[in-house]
Amino acid sequence: MVLKMVGFSGLSMKVKNGIIAGGLAAFVIGVYAYTMKAVGGTDEIQVAINKFEEEKSMKEGSTKA
């Protein structure tokens, strides 16, 4: 087992499980934080939608006028 190589053989099973759970939780939180930063960092999609809506309203305005 990996924990024997690291030197955790003297710890109880609950402590070992806690260490594994803490490591997994830290990994998941790190991936989530990175993803939210990467996705939320730019508004390229919203800018494209606004540009499309503006062009659409200009076309509708010019055909009705």
By DSSP, the count of extended strands is 0
Q: Write down the Rg.
A: 26 Å
Order of helices and strands: HHH
DSSP helix count?
Answer: 3
Question: Which structural class should the secondary elements be placed in?
Answer: mainly alpha
Q: What is the strand content?
A: under 5%
Shape, per Cα inertia axes: rod-shaped
What is the average of the pLDDT values? 83
Low-pLDDT runs: none
Profile the largest sheet: none
| Straight-line distance between termini | 76 Å
Describe the structure.
The protein is mainly α. The protein has 3 helices and no strands. The longest helix has 28 residues. The protein starts with a helix and ends with a helix. The mean pLDDT is 83.
Outline the fold blueprint:
Elements: H1 2-6, H2 13-40, H3 44-64
Defining key terms:
65 residues, mainly alpha
In short:
The protein has 65 residues and is mainly α. It has 3 helices and no strands.
